[in-house]
Amino acid sequence: MSITITAFERSPDGGMGLARDTRVRWALEEAGRAYEVRPVSFRALKEPAHLALNPFGQIPTYEEGDLVLFETGAIVLHIAERHAGLLPRQDPARARAIAWMFAALNTVEPPILELATATLMEGDSPWSAERRPLVENRVRDRLRQLSGRLGGAEWLDGDFSAGDLMMVSVLLRLRPSGLLDEDPNLAAYVARGEARPAYGRAFEAQLSAFAASPAPA
């Protein structure tokens, strides 16, 4: 069955690969699965046709036959469970890889998103100058813990897995802040993820779609 995902018609990240459809593209590239992309405008995100696929009006969504999924964690886990290369074959390594997926989304990403909100949405607020250092330190705490666990290993738990895919995707959101560069260990870890051919194909696909989109009037 063919696979269709949705993505922003014009990505708000300027083609930096930070939109969440890049995570799904990367997983599909690692799995060697072809897919189609249906671009969605910001207006269409809130229209009934898209809300039937994602009740929260977000991207990406994933369609394969009668199956419709939303939330990148669920989509990447679905791909990983059905195609070799993203999860170890046997437990307990398989269970640990899935745990790292959840850690990326539930433990590491929330303070990173809080920092993005503090920067992009609250930067002009009078209390922003006091709040931002507090948020940055929460991010640094998570990075310190993650870096300590990674140590000198190439990946989080043995071979590259969907856990690394999600973690690298989350950490990439820190690049504009400069906080990632404060930890050379994690910066090198992210660079290894970006160097994977499958990531390169996913990034170029997202970038090409952005470049081909007409500029807003």
Question: What does the model show?
Answer:
The protein is an alpha+beta fold and 217 residues long. The chain is built from eight helices and four strands; from the N terminus they run βαβαββαααααα. It has helices at 21-31, 48-51, 72-82, 93-120, 128-150, 162-172, 184-194, 197-212, and strands at 3-8, 36-40, 61-64, 67-70. A four-stranded mixed β-sheet has the order 2-1-3-4, covered by helices on one side. Helix 1 (21-31) links the parallel strand 1 and strand 2. Helix 1 (21-31) packs antiparallel against helix 6 (162-172). 32% of the residues are buried.
What's this model, at a glance?
With 217 residues, the protein is of the alpha+beta class. 53% of the residues lie in helices and 9% in strands.
